[in-house]
Specification:
Helix content: 25-40%
Strand order of the largest sheet: 2-1-3-4-5-6-7
Bound molecules: inosinic acid
CATH class: Alpha Beta
Oligomer: single chain
Shape: globular
Distance between the termini: 12 Å
Order of helices and strands: EHEHEHEEEEHH
CATH architecture: Alpha-Beta Complex
Number of helices: 5
Number of domains: 1
CATH topology: Maf protein
Largest sheet: 7 strands, mixed
Radius of gyration: 17 Å
Low-confidence stretches: none
Length: 197
């Protein structure tokens, strides 16, 4: 089976990709499983696309397999796109309950609550680079709704799902999420280019 290295140490992401791409006969292996760490990689890109490429390039320079890396986060219109690429690093030592409550506090008295989740997936192979992007649009709620999902899911009301990501089933989220949309584009690309990648 052909191998693709996923630039992450996150076992959930490996499972998610393996599952999403099961019909394509690729084995996804984590960069950590082959002894390559992303710890020293400085994610100093200005957007999700640049950060995904930075991570993919860092691993691709050390292996001969195709490499995939992703970067994602939430942007809030009234906060000029914040937390954006800082979604993970924002209040890093605090729980998501506290992070979510801080975001709602920042939007107090704010009528424009529009926000979007973004995902960029970079594929680097044989000195070629491709990026696939997905966006999910919605609004920040006034309190948390739902218990599923993770991170900012309980305060993100998805326009397409008509509920928060934390109220959606995994199946629903995996159909309409930013990650699902970017993954679908990568899926089509791999399917089309399966003889060369
Ligand atoms: P990363 O791309 O895995 O580094 O994720 C960046 C950060 O964005 C995560 O730690 C979460 O804070 C946030 N994030 C990305 N995708 C989602 C999602 O689907 N739901 C909730 N939060 C997310």
């Amino acid at each position: 089976m052909k191998k693709i290295v996923l630039a992450t140490g996150n076992k959930n992401k490996i499972k998610e990709y393996q599952n999403l791409f099961s019909s394509l006969e690729y084995e996804f292996i984590s960069s950590e499983d082959i002894g390559l760490s992303l710890d020293a990689v400085i994610e100093d890109g200005l957007n999700f696309k640049q950060n995904a490429l930075i991570k993919a390039r860092a691993i691709a320079s050390q292996v001969s397999y195709p490499v995939i890396a992703d970067d994602s986060g939430i942007t809030i219109n009234a906060l000029y796109g914040f937390p954006g690429i800082f979604s993970h690093r924002f209040m890093e030592d605090y729980s998501y309950r506290e992070k979510n409550s801080a975001i709602m506090h920042m939007l107090e008295n704010c009528s424009n609550r529009r926000a979007s989740f973004h995902c960029a997936i970079a594929l680097v192979y044989a000195n070629k680079e491709f990026v696939f992007e997905g966006v999910a649009r919605g609004e920040i709620t006034h309190r948390e709704f739902g218990i599923d999902g993770f991170g900012y899911d309980p305060i993100f009301f998805s326009y397409q799902l008509n509920k928060t990501f934390a109220e959606a089933s995994l199946n629903e989220k995996n159909t309409f999420s930013h990650r699902a949309k970017a993954s679908k584009k990568l899926f089509e690309f791999l399917k089309k280019n399966k003889d060369i990648i």
